[in-house]
Every structure is written in structure tokens, then in C-alpha cells.
Write a sequence for this structure.
């Protein structure tokens, strides 16, 4: 599946920037002069290009929505932030819809996966038929000659694969030269049908979690978040309060208990910020029964290496009793559940990592500190990687 | 730039035009009635209409469960399926599942629950009443 060599280079170029902020070499000093003067000289210092993206805060979904195509492109290509709400990861819904209506020109990731699954299904049926045929032939030979059957010289799987490849090569290529006729023929609209008017409306947006949004606006200062109700941009303090309150929605902020150290926003932000600052790309692990997945460079390069389960630990057990949040995985994990998680993730070749986040005690830390990100200093984070040990096999 | 009413620039017009209530249009009344489940309903509904492209999609409110479910067919000749949207932060119990089965009319043999995460990741799980033999 991984292709090395020249076909790898497009991804390296497209996804070259790890973050939305891009250093721009200074206009005043060329490369030679910079080297002569040294990196600390003001002339040689690069400036940073800030894309200033804009998003809309949605309280009901606890997320920030990005709708402008330019911002979606920047935030995805520079750091893989967010997820298209109608796609698997990268927002490709519009392209898939256009492909569906007008015929496939360029395959999106979802279409490529679907194609591969079809091919694998075909291979499996052919292989099953080949195995049945070989077994029937061996039975027949045994019945007539009385000799026990000899194992086949050639491996059945390789034979079937070779057959399919030969078939594919001999049939004329239909995909690129003749796109299939469009699925819905739009009725002619009273004589006027301008070219390209059938471009469907993009029903998809890029959805950022509150942790991603806060990291972009506070850590990198490249995202401005709009409050759709007041139609003003949120200041960082307002955003912080809004994100805390979103976790007790729909209880109004004046009545809710969102100002607590075990607010899920804070617990998850500690994890998000920790791994992002270390250079990992961190995404949702819903598909693998865990909280997060860690990618070394990004989803387009390799599969995720680590699967994270966040285990919040209360410094003061009394806080847990009074909590309105009911955080998962605070109690010790049972062996059966741990084995299940490990098995699921081993099958998809990911290492399971338990991330322990210590939640400060309400008794020790004054509540006012929760009104600024400085409260994050009170949290600690520890990672434990789990790997199953089989004494008989792991001798080295 | 922060805190004060924004100047109407074209980029902002785009944001406001795509403002959440516009997108929630079809479901606005239902979402208003059950705000806690608005996101999971919205995401499930959009997924079924635009991604899975099911037909005969309808939103059915079930007051006893204080949520709305989505019904639809995978294709015109398939039987009606029931999808119950829920959020990742919810804690499901056997009693909850029993209530869902009892309160859908007609009582189904199987339901799908659509679990939605904060970043709009969705997984569907099929739940059947009782033991189901795996297909041969």
C-alpha cells in the first residue's frame, strides 16, 4: 500500500508545513548575506506569515466550524487540523459529489478505499472458487486413481492474483477515457444552461474540536472565532469561558457548574496541547475505541502509531463525587477491558497508550485560577505504553 | 479586531451566511426542543442524507426518550431502518437500550445507534433484540 519513490513527493510538497504559520525569508537579506551576518541579526531574521483564519463557534456541537474554502485548505494542509463533517477526515464531500454527478476524474481517498475493497472482494471470491476447484479435482483424482492427492506446486493465492492482473491488463481502460454518463441529467432550464452551473452547493464544513480551536487561537494566534449570536469575535477570555460552558450546555452558564477543574475541556486540552507541542498530529480515536490517535507527521503519510486512552485522576477523591461531568476511565481499568482495547489496537497495528492526567484539588487551588489558561500548570500528565508480552515468543 | 462588532467584510458575510442556524434549518424546531441532542441529530441526519444517501429519511420525535430518531431506507427496496443518534459523552445502559426498543413504534427487531464525537466523527453500531446467528 505504501509507495516509495517519486510518487511520495507530492505529499511532501503539499503538506510541507506542519503548522498554519509559515516562516517567510526576510526580503532584505539574501541567503548568502544571512549566513555571513548570522541568524541573530535583525536583517537576516525571517518573518512569519499568518493566514488569520476565521471560524464560527457552535455551542450545541462543542466545536468551531470553518466554512471558507481558503481557511479549510490552510488548516487541513498545514497541520491536519479538523475534520470534514461529511467525510472520513479530509473534507472531500464536494469532490465526491461532483464525481458522482459528472463521472470520476480524480479519485478521493474514500473512493480509493471503496475501489480497493471491491478489488479485494473480487479476489476473495476468485480464490474461494479456485480452492473449491482444486479440492474437487483432487477428490476426483483420488477416486479414479486411488492415490492420495499431492499438494499443488503453485500457491493458489499467487495464481489467482496473477490471473486477475492479466485480466485487468487485457480489458481496455474505461475509467479515464470514457467517464460514465452523469447520474442525474439536469432538465434544460428554459434554454439557458451556463457552463459549470451544476456545481453543487458545498454542504460540508471543517469541524474543529474546542481543543484544536483554542490551540490555534491561543497557542498560534492564527484563528479568530466568531460568536454567531452576538456576531462579534470572541476575545481569548470570552472563548475560554465559552468553551468551558459548552460542556454543561444546555444549562445556562450562570447556573451551571462548568467552572471546575475536571471540566472535560480542560482535561482534554492538557492532553491535546502536550502532544501537539511535541509535534504529534492528534486526531479522534473513535473508530478504535480510544480517545485519540497520534500520527507522526499526519494521516496522509502513515497510519497512526499510538492509540490514546485518557485516564483522568483526581487529586482529591471528594471532587469526583461532587462532579457533574461523570468522566470516563477515572476508575482503574479492569483487565478484561484492557485486554479488549489492546487486542483491537494490536490488530490495527497501533500501540496502546494510557495517558494519566492529574486533576488538581478544588481545596488546594483557588477557583479564580480557572479563568485563565495559567491553570494548566496545575495539571500533570504521564504516559504509559501497554504492550502484550508473550514469554514463549518474545525472547530477544 | 477582538470583542467589538465586526466590520462587514466579505469573508465574514460568508461565515454568517453559513451560520449554524442556516444549516440547522431543516431540523431547527426539533433541535430547539431537545437541545442536548441537537448535535448528534444534526450530524446523523446530514450523514444519512448527504453521505450514505438514504431515501425516505424522516425525523421522528419520541417524547418518552426526550430525543428524536431518524428513520430511512438504504435503497428504495430495502426495509425501513431506525437510527438513534447519540453523543460520545452520553453513558448508555441496558435500561436505556430497552427503553429505545420499547418506545419505537412499531417495535423493531434491530436498531442502529449513531455515535457522534466532537469533531463530527461518527460510528454506527447495529443492535439486535436477542441473539442473532452470524450469516453463513
Amino acid at each position: 500500500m505504501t509507495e516509495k519513490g517519486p510518487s511520495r513527493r507530492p505529499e511532501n510538497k503539499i503538506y510541507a508545513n506542519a503548522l498554519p504559520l509559515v516562516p517567510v525569508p526576510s526580503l532584505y537579506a539574501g541567503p548568502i548575506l544571512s549566513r555571513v551576518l548570522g541568524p541573530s541579526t535583525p536583517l537576516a531574521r525571517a518573518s512569519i506569515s499568518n493566514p488569520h483564519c476565521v471560524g464560527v463557534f457552535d455551542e450545541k456541537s462543542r466545536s468551531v466550524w470553518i466554512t471558507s474554502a481558503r481557511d479549510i485548505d490552510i488548516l487541513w494542509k498545514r497541520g491536519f487540523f479538523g475534520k470534514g463533517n461529511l467525510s472520513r477526515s479530509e473534507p472531500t464531500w464536494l469532490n465526491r459529489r461532483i464525481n458522482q454527478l459528472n463521472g470520476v476524474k480524480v479519485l478521493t481517498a474514500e473512493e480509493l478505499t471503496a475501489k480497493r475493497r471491491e478489488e479485494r472482494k473480487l479476489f476473495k471470491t476468485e480464490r474461494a472458487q479456485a480452492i473449491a476447484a482444486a479440492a474437487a479435482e483432487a477428490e476426483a483424482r483420488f477416486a479414479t486413481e486411488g492415490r492420495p492427492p499431492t499438494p499443488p506446486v503453485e500457491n493458489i493465492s499467487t495464481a489467482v492474483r496473477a490471473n486477475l492482473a492479466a485480466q485487468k491488463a487485457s480489458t481496455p481502460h474505461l475509467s479515464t477515457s470514457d467517464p460514465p454518463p452523469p447520474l442525474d441529467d439536469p432538465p434544460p432550464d428554459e434554454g439557458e444552461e451556463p457552463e459549470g452551473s451544476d456545481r453543487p452547493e458545498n454542504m460540508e464544513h471543517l469541524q474543529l474540536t474546542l481543543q484544536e480551536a483554542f490551540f490555534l487561537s491561543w497557542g498560534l494566534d492564527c484563528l479568530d472565532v466568531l460568536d454567531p449570536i452576538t456576531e462579534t469575535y470572541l476575545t481569548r477570555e470570552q472563548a475560554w469561558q465559552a468553551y468551558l460552558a459548552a460542556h454543561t450546555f444546555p444549562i445556562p452558564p450562570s447556573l451551571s457548574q462548568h467552572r471546575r477543574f475536571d471540566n472535560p475541556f480542560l482535561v482534554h486540552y492538557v492532553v491535546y496541547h502536550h502532544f501537539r507541542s511535541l509535534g504529534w498530529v492528534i486526531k479522534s480515536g473513535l473508530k478504535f475505541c480510544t480517545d485519540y490517535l497520534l500520527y507522526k507527521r499526519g494521516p496522509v503519510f502513515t497510519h497512526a502509531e499510538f492509540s490514546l486512552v485518557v485516564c483522568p485522576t483526581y487529586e482529591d477523591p471528594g471532587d469526583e463525587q461532587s462532579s457533574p461531568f461523570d468522566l470516563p476511565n477515572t476508575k482503574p481499568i479492569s483487565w478484561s477491558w484492557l485486554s479488549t482495547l489492546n487486542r483491537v489496537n494490536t490488530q490495527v497495528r497501533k500501540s496502546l497508550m494510557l495517558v494519566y492526567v492529574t486533576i488538581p484539588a478544588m481545596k488546594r487551588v483557588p477557583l479564580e485560577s480557572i479563568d485563565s489558561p495559567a491553570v494548566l500548570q496545575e495539571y500533570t500528565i504521564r504516559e504509559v505504553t501497554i504492550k502484550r508480552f508473550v514469554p514463549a515468543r518474545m525472547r530477544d | 479586531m477582538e470583542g467589538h462588532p465586526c466590520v462587514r467584510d466579505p469573508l465574514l458575510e460568508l461565515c454568517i451566511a453559513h451560520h449554524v442556524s442556516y444549516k440547522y434549518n431543516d431540523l431547527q424546531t426539533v433541535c430547539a426542543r431537545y437541545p442536548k441532542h441537537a448535535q448528534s441529530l444534526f450530524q446523523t441526519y446530514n450523514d444519512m442524507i448527504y453521505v450514505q444517501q438514504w431515501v425516505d429519511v424522516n425525523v421522528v420525535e419520541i417524547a418518552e426518550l426526550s430525543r428524536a430518531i431518524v428513520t430511512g431506507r438504504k435503497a428504495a427496496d430495502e426495509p425501513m431502518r431506525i437510527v438513534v443518534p447519540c453523543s460520545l459523552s452520553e453513558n448508555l445502559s441496558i435500561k436505556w437500550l430497552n427503553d429505545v426498543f420499547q418506545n419505537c413504534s412499531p417495535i423493531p427487531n434491530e436498531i442502529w445507534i449513531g455515535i457522534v464525537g466532537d469533531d463530527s466523527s461518527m460510528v454506527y453500531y447495529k443492535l439486535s433484540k436477542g441473539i442473532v446467528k452470524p450469516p453463513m
User: Anything to note?
Assistant: Confidence is low (pLDDT under 50) at residues 174-196 of chain A. Residues 188 and 195 of chain A are 12 Å apart (CA to CA).
